[in-house]
Amino acid sequence: MKLFGILLLFVMAVPAVQAQDGNWKKLAEKSVAFKSETDKVNLTGNERTANWIRIKCVQGTVQIKEVTIKMEGGESKTFNPATGLLTKGMATVPFQVPGKKDEKVKSIEMKYDSKGTMVTNKRAKVEVQGKLDKD
């Protein structure tokens, strides 16, 4: 029974490890306000096909509470990141995109809380990054 549990854990961890390496493409950038908020980022252009999405902090400190990925076909999925507090250079664990393999991402909704104040800190900035698995 222990062997089965270890094997199951390994099988579940492999896709996440594969998603962390490789080349990530910037799909969008967002400046976040100094308060709790929900922002919607609409993706446009050709850079919307991805199997994995992550949020990377490029300036300031932000706590990501929830990420919802919405696809063009209408399907959506909500994630609660385990590592929600991000500082410059940090990224969330990659989220596997719902929907069909070649379907495009329509938008990303983020619930967040920017840490700091207007007086002492710059506004936090985050990038929405995507990665397409190689076949």
What does this structure look like?
- This protein has a single domain, classed as Jelly Rolls (Sandwich).
- The strands form two sheets. Strands 2, 4, 5, 6 and 8 form a five-stranded antiparallel sheet that branches. A four-stranded antiparallel sheet has the order 1-9-3-7, with no helix packed on it.
- The chain has 135 residues and is mainly β.
- It is globular.
- Helix content is 14%, strand content 46%.
List keywords for this structure.
135 residues, Jelly Rolls
Short summary:
With 135 residues, the protein is mostly beta strands.
Written as H for each helix and E for each strand, in order along the chain, the element string is HEEEEEEEEE
Tell me, rounded to a whole number, the average pLDDT: 78
What's the CATH topology name? Answer: Jelly Rolls
Instruction: Report the uncertain regions.
Output: 3-19
β-strand percent reads over 45%
Instruction: Count up the helices.
Output: 1
What is the approximate shape? globular
What can be said about the biggest beta sheet? 5 strands, antiparallel
Which percent range fits the helix content? Answer: 10-25%
The count of DSSP E runs of length 2 or more, i.e. the number of strands, is 9
Q: Structurally, how many domains make up the residues? A: 1
**Per CATH, which architecture?**
Sandwich
Distance between the termini: 33 Å
Task: Classify the secondary structure makeup into a structural class.
Answer: mainly beta
CATH C-level class is Mainly Beta
